[in-house]
Amino acid sequence: MSGRGAVLRVGSVLGAIVAYGYLIACLALVVFQVYRWFQNGEWTHVGVNDGMRAALAHFAGSDGLTGWRADLARWLDAPVAWLGLHTVLEVLPASLALFVISILGNSLFVYTTDRLREEQTVRR
User: Fold this and answer.
1) Domain residue spans in the chain?
2) pTM, 2 dp
3) What digits encode the pLDDT tens for the residues 31-48?
């Protein structure tokens, strides 16, 4: 296998992992929201901000958040700049963002798989 073929194969695997991983996360989030809706009778909005806060809390080290992660956490809690972006991230549903990332991963998967097939056809 050529170097280009190896890179395409790695890109294909990464694209599939991103595509299906984020799709599963999107579906899990929607199922959670539906469960909460059935339980409480009220839709639980989960924005991108909420997801970013949860990710930062998950990846915090033993000494807490430091560096750019601490700056990002402060900005998510009380923005003083980029107020419009902060509003968009609050309003944008996290499930939609996860779905878009899934589509991008799937696009990478399809593109690299097609290039691999073309390379195999040329070699024959």
Assistant:
1) 1-45+94-124, 47-92
2) 0.85
3) 999 999 999 999 999 999
